[in-house]
Design a protein that fits this description.
By secondary structure, the chain is of the alpha/beta class. The protein folds into 2 domains: 199 residues, Glycogen Phosphorylase B (Rossmann fold), CATH 3.40.50.2000; 174 residues, 3-Layer(aba) Sandwich (Rossmann fold). It is built from 15 helices and 14 strands. The strands form 2 sheets. It has an 8-stranded mixed β-sheet with strand order 3-4-2-1-5-6-7-8, sandwiched between helices. 41% of the residues are buried. It is an enzyme of class 2 (transferase).
């Protein structure tokens, strides 16, 4: 077997989505350990013909293949051809390790891949980054999605030779099942110092992401990934202070479609809150670099404890201190008055308001000092995880 790794799963390589960015940086980590890494993912830019396409490309020395992104239910259910082509690539590359990031189809694709690797004496590691509820779609879809998720998370991930997880919550779950684990949050290859504006501006706070489905009003907000609504409510209570809040990833119209009760609140803040809708990631980064803080408010539940917000890594690595609630492993990486703030939980609104007010009143110089700390002491740099990764791979 060669000293190389095949990384396959539900990601768009190299940087088409947050999953693609995660596995790319994990690829840099494995490369630093002496492994050659090849990726097999999904791409929405590839059209599916009568015969399944599988294109080979190269990015920064990484070879990668992309299947067309599934568009119909049948594309997700039937995976025989994808599995055959994947096995052919594995045979050609003769890897020592296969890493499965979710599935390019459904959980049974990964199950078949897992069993094939074991039969052929190839180590297989599962990369687990979330445990999401089935909150959207019709009843049949939600039931099917729930069953697929539970099979994958509870049984298939635990049946390999080890599990890479994104949080201690997930690692502790798999350790109890007797698995060897490695916890890796979203990583960054390097740090970037933020842009310092020449003219005086208000404290600029930014949010970027997809906080919740936007097709309809959702009564149960516990399914919201990000509580953008709470962030807006908190900022509405300090509306007399000098700040602006830029929101990327959702339009004002879509936001109010889900949370119509905020119609008047948003209108009273029209000089402070700006919805920019969905834009490309380069535009998000440009605006991120011109901001003072990135804000992310989340409820504490299984979904938010199991995952880890990749935007926090991105913000810190671009020199932007963060304002977050205590979820996942954030307390291991975010420290008050050093690289950001962990504010009170969502059941303590009055405390949150006072904390945000203090952060805004601390001014630009304070935010700039935190920004330098983010860059100089970036906790997400790849080199900080080399030793643990080396020990994990050697253990399997």
């Amino acid at each position: 077997m060669k000293k190389n790794i095949i990384y396959i799963g539900n990601f768009s390589f190299p940087k088409e989505n947050s999953s693609g960015i995660r596995v790319l940086n994990n690829g840099y980590l494995f490369r630093a350990l002496g492994y050659e890494v090849t990726f097999i993912g999904l791409s929405k830019s590839i059209e599916k013909s009568t015969k399944l396409n599988l294109t080979l490309s190269n990015y920064d020395g990484f070879s990668y293949y992309s299947f067309p992104y599934p568009k119909k239910i049948t594309d997700w259910i039937f995976f025989k051809e994808q599995l055959q082509q994947t096995i052919e690539i594995i045979k050609q590359n003769q890897p020592s390790i296969v890493v499965a990031y979710g599935s390019i189809s459904n959980s049974f694709f990964t199950l078949y891949l897992n069993n094939w690797c074991k039969k052929n004496k190839i180590k297989i590691i599962h990369d687990c980054v979330d445990w999401l509820p089935s909150a959207s779609g019709g009843l049949a879809f939600k039931i099917g999605k729930h069953i697929d998720t539970e099979i994958h998370k509870r049984y298939i991930n635990a049946s390999g030779d080890g599990v890479i997880t994104v949080s201690n919550y997930l690692s502790n779950y798999y350790i109890k099942k007797g698995c060897k684990t490695l916890t890796i949050p979203p990583l960054s290859k390097e740090s970037h110092l933020k842009t310092t504006p020449t003219e005086e501006k208000p404290i600029t706070i930014i949010y970027a992401g997809f906080p919740f489905p936007t097709t309809r009003k959702i009564k149960d907000k516990s399914f919201f990934k990000d509580r953008l609504d709470i962030a807006i409510e908190i900022l509405s209570k300090v509306n007399n202070h000098n700040f602006v809040f830029n929101i990327f990833g959702i339009s004002k119209e879509d936001y109010l479609k889900v949370i119509p009760e905020h119609f008047n609140l948003i209108n009273t803040m029209n000089s402070k809150v700006f919805f920019h809708g969905i834009v490309n990631n380069d535009d998000v980064i440009k605006n991120l670099l011109e901001s003072d803080y990135f804000i992310l408010i989340r409820d504490k539940n299984k979904m938010t404890q199991a995952g880890f917000p990749s935007k926090i890594t991105e913000a810190i690595s671009h020199g932007i201190p963060v304002i977050v609630t205590d979820t996942s492993d954030l307390k291991e990486y975010i420290f008050n008055r050093e690289n950001g703030y962990i504010i009170s939980d969502n059941d303590k609104k009055e405390n949150q308001i006072k904390e945000i007010e203090e952060i805004i009143n601390n001014g630009k110089d304070h935010a700039d000092a935190l920004s330098k700390n983010c860059v100089e002491k970036n906790p997400f740099l790849i080199d900080k995880f080399r030793s643990n990764a080396k020990s994990f791979i050697e253990s399997i």
